[in-house]
Amino acid sequence: MSVILPKNAQAVIIGGGVVGCSVAYHLAKLGYTDVVLLERKKLTSGTTWHAAGLVGQMRSSLNLTQMVKYSGNLYETLEAETGMATGYRRTGSISLATNQERLTEYKRNASLAKVHGVDVQILTTDELRDKIDLFKLDDVVGGAWIPKDGKADPANVAMALAKGAKNNGAKIFEDVKVTGILKKDGKAVGVQTEYGDIQSDAVVNCGGMWAREVGKMAGVSVPLHACEHFYFLTSAVPNMGDMPVVRVPDESAYYKEDAGKILVGLFEPNAKPWAQNGIPEDFCFDQIQDDLDHCMPYLELAMNRVPVMESLGIETLFNGPESFTPDDNFQIGESPELGNFFVAAGFNSIGIQAAGGAGKYLAEWIEGKEPPCDLWDVDIRRNEPFQNNKIYLANRVTETLGYLYENHFPYHQYETARGLRKTPLYEFFKERGACFGEVAGWERPNWFVPKDLIGKVEAKYEYSWGRQNWFDFHRLEQQAIRETVGMYEMSSYAKIRVKGSDAMDFMQMICANDVDVDVGKMVYTQWLNRKGGIEADVTVTRLEVDDYLIVSGTMCLNRDMHWLKKNLPEGANCSLFDATSAEGCIAIMGPNSRDLLQSLTDTDMSNESFPFANVRNIEVGMANVRAHRITYVGELGWELYFPIEFSSYVAELIDSKGEEFSLRQIGMHTVDSCRIEKAYRHFGHDITDEDHVIDAGLGFAVKVDKNPSKFGNFIGYESVIKKKASGYEMRVMQFLLSNPGSMLYHNEPILKNGEIVGHLTSGTYSHTLGGAVGLGYVTCLPNESHEDILNAEYTIEVEGVIEKANASLKPMYDPLNSKIRN
């Protein structure tokens, strides 16, 4: 049967699952009159129809929590709006802990929930028995109760959203497969189908487990892969009423009431990837061959946990595909490869929970041309191209499915699909006791086994919410940075070259600081959006009159390149080049760094000859090195850049001088703890596109009086002027716990005179300061004085316990920067 499609649309949505229907609904609600949704088969026929339908209230960040809270609120009102029931009920949820580490995780989550306005209660075993009498709790040490968690009928939610979208003018077509993406001048301009093309201002990939294939048609990476997801359904339970959703993550299982029966779903370790060679073309409301052998260990645990199941028996074993991403976070936003091509996919089995809010946020992103709030955790720009490799994905998702129910310990590292991106110094550091972590695929030393323990102690994490097995090694590394000298690698950091006759004017427009400096000078700066929020936190070095080097965080390469390309004025004589893999970089930091480097070069490294924020080309042994005097750890030091092939030579030469100057190899955990001691901000944690640069305490790096570029004032200029006039709304403060035995990581609530006023954005243990230290935003009155802000009692809630804290608006370590500029 022929289908007549419109020729034009404001937005074309590919995929008719719950997320695609939500995007259509919210675009229509925003007043979009020409929204078209295309579904290859039937609405909900991929994953939505067999989803569990759990709708929780809590996520790891405020904005993601607001996203899922919105979903629940929306599902409650859809029936009144559309006449279609969603089956949504607030049954509450319980998560059981069978060990103290798990209970600690719940306590920390309950503390964070207070910041987010979510009611999470920690219950004793006896209190749990009153709520879930079917469950055996003899080995349970406690649990978390969230009264407003709920569940819904997934297909009905999607159909209600679809009806609401159509009621507001959206057009939905089933049995229409998109066969290509129309592109022009680096932007998506429409789609191809067997029934003709549709020109469109925006194309939205809501393809679910097909989203990777849809992305490939556009030249866009959408890293996700389907896994087999199992659940069991018992026969009917006599006189069974409604029960809370129950999670037992230590046994990889969740339980819910389903039409008077018990449904048990699994998120097991060593999951099974599915359809590695492609999803069958005719897949529609299908299920996968079951695998009882794979499931049996978890079924036995479930029957032990709910003894009545043994007599009830299993009526159904269901196996259906769910898509997972390399880091268990969604893929949302405008793609960095193709403008006006948006993605909302990869929801890692919480698509029903997230769909309402995700559709709202993405619709607002499409309309506003920028994220409506900080969504960096789920922003598709965080991915690297290699992560779209199907073999990589098939390996990684065997772990990420089960990680949903793992204890989310601090410093966790994935173990699958590792060892892909190694610098030439990998073996050098491995021989010296490195325990590696991974960021954007890069293998980086996170901590080191001390030299005298190599071969006796394994360089491997032993996770805990308390002091982990590398705690004392971390102390030695901190001492080296602060008292002698440390060496660490920065080769994985993003490096972008901006060259051309318009390079200076372009950078002046992009950067809030003044980068029209002499050749050989470095500038610390932010890139702002029009609201004054921080899009990037970088150093910029003027290597030549028309040649700049940008150094940014390892995770930020695609984001930063996307921002530059998106804002490059038409006709500008300026080229952008990713130089990350072209140059290696070793940092030498600490009081002895000058003496160590001076022993290797004829260049005068004195403060007078080589001041802070300057760059010199020097000779280190037989290598030509570009030395940048800068620091991210708050000490005298240099970053040494060189062609990547010189990495081993330079590292070994420096190491040969190690004993003379008490050099120690340093891991990235120590780098992070030192920067927190110095109150240096970290992009993605302490500063985001939602945090105003003035509120973030970075006004010193903003120059509103600099000469404007030929392309106009820097982006965000007007917002900065307005904020300077209106005053702070919040301040970044540093906190040091009085109790040296407590640990801070991030997300702990900050209390001022007993009331919650914020939460920590970064946390670590400071051996230098003698306790756990953190950074966080505190709300304040406009123009509130430093004295008034500090003249209060500050405490931090840690695992449900209120801990006394010292607070400061200045860095507690070296507040006058005397060590850096020595």
How would you explain this protein's 3D organization?
The chain has 822 residues and is α+β, with helices and mostly antiparallel strands. Among the domains are: 8-86 and 152-223 and 327-382, FAD/NAD(P)-binding domain (3-Layer(bba) Sandwich), CATH 3.50.50; 419-492 and 581-681, Probable tRNA modification gtpase trme, domain 1 (Gyrase A, domain 2, 2-Layer Sandwich), CATH 3.30.1360; 499-579 and 692-720, 2-Layer Sandwich (Alpha-Beta Plaits), CATH 3.30.70. The chain is 26% helix and 28% strand. The strands form 7 sheets. Strands 1, 2, 8, 9, 10, 11, 17 and 18 form an 8-stranded mixed sheet that branches. An 8-stranded mixed sheet has the order 5-6-4-13-14-15-12-16. Strands 28-29-30-27-21-31 form a 6-stranded mixed sheet, sandwiched between helices. The radius of gyration is 27 Å and the shape is globular.
